[in-house]
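The protein record quoted in full:
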Amino acid sequence: MELPTIAAPGVGERADAAADAACHLYDAVAPWRAREPGGWSRTAAEDAAEVIETTAHALARVHPRAEVILAPVHVALADLRRQLALPPADALTADGLPATPRTVGNPRRTRWVRVVTLPEPRQQRSRTTS
């Protein structure tokens, strides 16, 4: 199967930006010695895993067998999440797609922050008699 030379609108630019971002991420962690955690935090590791998972889901649409070919990536990331005590990836539907697809407008489930705030004081209603 030969791919076209021109991608759908936005696909080429976003793939290029993702590749650049991955290179910058590697450059940020490469100076660390192999036996150290490499400057990673729990949040950064979870974000990176989500990037790979989401990219693999997107790339699964490039070829009819791509999803099967990429299955080991998801298995490896699930194992890495367990080893790092990170929450599991989002559940998949019967079609193999995330149950809640990530979009720019949707917050990721792992980033929901519950902030406890004090309740506002009650406003006394003025009683008027008619």
